[in-house]
């Protein structure tokens, strides 16, 4: 996408309406606000333009494009380094589509990712693969052994549970639907007709 065109769309919501409607968004005004917040988050316009190209391709395939874009906006603005995240989406062309699949499928999982953005890196490393019980117990035991305060131990247990929930769900949602993982090529068969 041309950066000058993106700049015009960001500055003029009316001009962007048709473009955003092409993404199958029901609420183009909210979608415009999502993009403006992402632009103000610290990423460069050239990276946002690359993300917009991917969004134009991916959102129409999803079951709920509005939910996916809203959660992406929340995820980007909550992350410690939006510029680094946008660079990842530019380098790894599968990273954003997989994340969007989660963001359009489950608000609960989206909220977990937004609350603990580091869990996304763990998901990308494990790709939702099963982990042996012994490995899980050893990881948790060593993390808890390093802590002395009850509050910190409870927080570590909650974080561990959230991350395991995400890993298992990633395997259920993404691995079974994404072509790289043996699922169907169009992983948004649940797209609503509107």
What's the structural blueprint in terms of helices and strands?
Elements: H1 3-11, H2 13-21, H3 28-40, H4 45-58, H5 65-78, H6 82-91, H7 95-105, H8 107-115, H9 118-126, H10 133-145, H11 150-175
Textual characterization of the structure:
- With 194 residues, the protein is mostly helical.
- Helices cover 71% and strands 0% of the residues.
- The chain contains 11 helices and no strands.
- It has helices spanning 3-11, 13-21, 28-40, 45-58, 65-78, 82-91, 95-105, 107-115, 118-126, 133-145, 150-175.
- Helix 2 crosses helix 3, helix 3 runs parallel beside helix 5 (65-78) and helix 9 packs across helix 11.
- The longest helix is centred in the C-terminal third of the chain and has 26 residues, at 150-175.
- The radius of gyration is 18 Å and the shape is elongated.
A few lines on this structure:
The chain is mainly alpha-helical and 194 residues long. The protein contains eleven helices and no strands.
Q: Based on DSSP secondary structure assignment, what is the total number of beta strands?
A: 0
Biggest sheet descriptor: none
Question: Beta-strand percentage?
Answer: under 5%
Q: State the distance separating the first and last CA atoms.
A: 26 Å
Question: Residue ranges: pLDDT <50 for 5 or more in a row?
Answer: 178-194
What is the H/E string? HHHHHHHHHHH
| Gyration radius, rounded | 18 Å
Q: Approximately how much helix is present in the residues?
A: over 70%
| Structural class based on helices, strands and sheet pairing | mainly alpha
What best-fitting shape do the alpha-carbon axes yield? elongated
Average pLDDT, to the nearest integer? 84
Number of helices: 11
């Amino acid at each position: 996408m041309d950066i000058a065109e993106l700049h015009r769309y960001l500055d003029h919501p009316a001009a962007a309406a048709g473009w955003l409607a092409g993404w199958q968004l029901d609420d183009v005004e909210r979608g415009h606000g999502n993009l403006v917040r992402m632009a103000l988050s610290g990423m460069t316009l050239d990276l946002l333009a690359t993300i917009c190209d991917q969004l134009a391709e991916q959102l129409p395939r999803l079951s709920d494009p509005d939910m996916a874009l809203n959660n992406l906006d929340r995820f980007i603005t909550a992350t410690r380094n939006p510029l680094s995240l946008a660079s990842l989406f530019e380098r790894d062309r599968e990273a954003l589509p997989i994340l969007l699949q989660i963001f359009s499928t489950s608000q609960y999982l989206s909220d977990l990712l937004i609350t603990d953005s580091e869990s996304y890196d763990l998901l990308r490393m494990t790709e939702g693969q099963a982990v042996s019980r012994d490995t899980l117990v050893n990881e948790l035991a060593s993390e808890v052994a390093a802590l002395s305060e009850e509050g910190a131990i409870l927080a570590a247990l909650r974080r561990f549970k959230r991350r395991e929930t995400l890993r298992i769900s990633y395997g259920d949602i993404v691995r079974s639907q994404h072509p790289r993982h043996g699922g169907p090529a169009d992983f948004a068969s649940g797209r609503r007709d509107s």
